[in-house]
Every structure is written in C-alpha cells, then in structure tokens.
C-alpha cells in the first residue's frame, strides 16, 4: 500500500523532447507563431502541434509550448485542460465520438453509444487494446439535421444505426477503407491534429473532398429563397438513396 501514498512531493520537471524532435517542432512552432501579432495567441494551434507528435498533449508538450510562447506551464495547462479536443492521455488512432445530445439521443444516439461500448469492450473515453479506437460521447456534433451522428477524427458519419456504427469501427480496426458521409477522407488522429495546427493537408484530393454543408442543412435556405425541394433530403434509415420519398 505504501506505493499508493502521496507524500505531497512536487512533480519532477517534464522530460525534454529528443534533440531532433525538438528541432523539428521548433521549426513548425515558429511557422505557427509568425501568423499572429502576439505570440501567446498561437497557443491553441501549438497544442494541436504537440498533440500530433504523441497523440495526446503530454507534460513535455505543454512545457514546449510554454517555452516557445513565454508562458508558464500553469497557463498552458489551464488551456489544455479546458478544451476537450486536447487529449490528456494516450488514445487511439481513431477518435469515435457519438453524439448523445437531445436530438441525436432520441433518434438513436444513446443506443449506438451503448452498443459500441459493448461491442468494443470499452467505456467512455477508453481505448481498445489494439490502440485503434477511442470511444467517447459528445454533447453535440453540430449536425442535428443528420441525427444520429457519429464523428471519427472530426469527420461526419450521418444517419447512423447501431449496426452501421459497429461495422464502421470493425472496418477501422481491420484497416479497411472507411469513407465519411461528407468531408475529407479519414486520416489518423495524429494527422488530424497536425491539420488542425494549421498545416496543409497534402493528401491528393483531400482538400477538394472537404465540400460544404449537406443538403439537409441547406433546405431552409432554399425555402427562404422560394425554392421547393424536389425530393426527400434525408432518406429514412434502411432505405437506399434511390428510394425517394414524396415531396
């Protein structure tokens, strides 16, 4: 039991990045800092940068941000712990977030989340043993018109069912290609973090594939312009895209 007793001793300083890693990150960090009139404004993308290195924001990463921006580690920690997009512990290659907010929940989000937990053998904010999937519930994916929605590394998977969600995570774990409903092709969480840090997505065709809002999101705009939808915008789950409903 003695190894579980804390004596209140201060935590040792964070270990430094290896010299080659720090040199590479410093070059990227300077590119980020140069975008802003004040260096401390670069903290959010800098946290994404260090997250892209190890898959989560480590003490080493926070110390690096503090050093580069002239901040205290307490200031960096306060920001890193406030935003849920910054992971604080090792996580999977694919962050699978199930919306459990009101509309998604009543449309099936709660059922999807419960079945994925059982199917993957993990709880909320836990990672599968193979390191592929981290499962978490999300309060809102900002896509209520496509409920229930699952996001993988912030890409949309609309109108999901427990069966489609389980197939999707099985395909991810098996290394099979998984295509989002809309948006860019999937990449790993580390690659996503680097893109969020502000560096270009250099995968062929990825930028062109990002697209815009889905048709269900734009139906109100079309109606406001006096246009009439010609067919059902979102097909009931279980129907194919060729089974259009009545106007």
Automatic annotation (TrEMBL):
UniProt GO MF annotations: NADH dehydrogenase (quinone) (non-electrogenic) activity
EC number per UniProt: 1.6.5.9
InterPro entries in the record: NuoE-like, NuoE_dom, NuoE_N, Thioredoxin-like_sf
Oxidoreductase among keywords: yes
Cofactor requirement: [2Fe-2S] cluster
Domain of life: Bacteria
Keyword Iron-sulfur: yes
Pfam families the record matches: 2Fe-2S_thioredx (PF01257)
Enzyme category, top tier: oxidoreductase
Record keywords: 2Fe-2S, Iron, Iron-sulfur, Metal-binding, Oxidoreductase
Family: Belongs to the complex I 24 kDa subunit family.
Protein name per Swiss-Prot or TrEMBL: NADH-quinone oxidoreductase subunit NuoE
Originating species: Streptomyces litmocidini
Gene: nuoE
